[in-house]
Amino acid sequence: ASLPVGRRVVVIGGGMTAIDAAVQSKLLGAEEVTICYRRGQEHMNASEFEQDLAAANGVTIRHWLQPKRVIAAGGKVSGIELEYTAMDGDKLVGTGERLTLVADQVFKAIGQSFVPAALNGSGALLALEGGRIKVDVEGRTSLPNVWAGGDCIFGGDDLTVSAVAQGRDAAESIHRALTSNGRA
Ligand SMILES: Cc1cc2nc3c(=O)[nH]c(=O)nc-3n(C[C@H](O)[C@H](O)[C@H](O)COP(=O)(O)OP(=O)(O)OC[C@H]3O[C@@H](n4cnc5c(N)ncnc54)[C@H](O)[C@@H]3O)c2cc1C
């Protein structure tokens, strides 16, 4: 599938996904690409290597800006309104000062959170740690007959190779469970 790329792209976020979206947009032909991150450079989740990569590809990274409103004209994005931020003690606050960037494409790269409600049932609760699924060394969750692996588990390193290895380990564990008792 192909995704049309805008001339002026704004990416909201400060992690690896934001950098990927910005760099790829530039490589695919966007004229201006700006990453807007709501905290300072030292708080960005993206590694220094990735930040340098973005800069080397002509991506502008702006800090201390949080999105307020996407501006649309004729059913299309025409800009984004942002607010400057600052630290007030240990709390991040908006300063009230606003800025508008012209944009015809806006990407949101601010992560995801896991909502376990749909998996909780029959009295058993899916145990979480740090917002992710808690598993034992074999990948077993707190729910009977449910194993997990990959990005959704706590303590992982968010790499494809680890997700694949955890899938393999869980499959072996499931096989042992099925063959030892006659049932899982
Ligand atoms: C921008 C970016 C760059 C990355 N670069 C690298 C890299 O260079 N090297 C590397 O090793 N790793 C990289 N990663 C990490 C890597 O992509 C993940 O670690 C890996 O994909 C984890 O695999 P997973 O199967 O756990 O999850 P995913 O690959 O995220 O698969 C989960 C799947 O579940 C689906 N899903 C979610 N909820 C539901 C639901 N309720 N019902 C049905 N389906 C659902 C999702 O749509 C998705 O298809 C990168 C990640 C990102 C976002």
Named once each, the bound ligands are: flavin-adenine dinucleotide
Mean pLDDT: 93
* Content of β-strand: 25-35%
Q: CATH homologous superfamily of the largest domain?
A: FAD/NAD(P)-binding domain
Short description:
Helix content is 23%, strand content 30%. It is an alpha/beta fold and 184 residues long.
Polypeptide structure, described:
With 184 residues, this protein is α/β, with parallel strands linked by helices. It has two domains: 8-108, FAD/NAD(P)-binding domain (3-Layer(bba) Sandwich), CATH 3.50.50; 116-178, no CATH class. It has helices at residues 16-27, 48-56, 160-181, and strands at residues 8-12, 32-36, 60-62, 65-73, 76-88, 91-102, 105-108, 128-129, 132-133. α2 (48-56) links the parallel β2 and β3. The longest helix is centred in the C-terminal third of the chain and has 22 residues, at 160-181. The protein is elongated, with a radius of gyration of 21 Å. The model has no long low-confidence stretch (mean pLDDT 93). The chain binds flavin-adenine dinucleotide (FAD). Flavin-adenine dinucleotide (FAD) binds at residues 16-17, 20, 150-152, 158-161, 163.
Task: Outline the secondary-structure elements.
Layout: E1 8-12, H1 16-27, E2 32-36, H2 48-56, E3 60-62, E4 65-73, E5 76-88, E6 91-102, E7 105-108, E8 128-129, E9 132-133, H3 160-181
Parallel strand pairs: 1-2, 1-7, 2-3
Antiparallel strand pairs: 4-5, 5-6, 8-9
Residues 16-17, 20, 150-152, 158-161, 163 line the site of flavin-adenine dinucleotide.
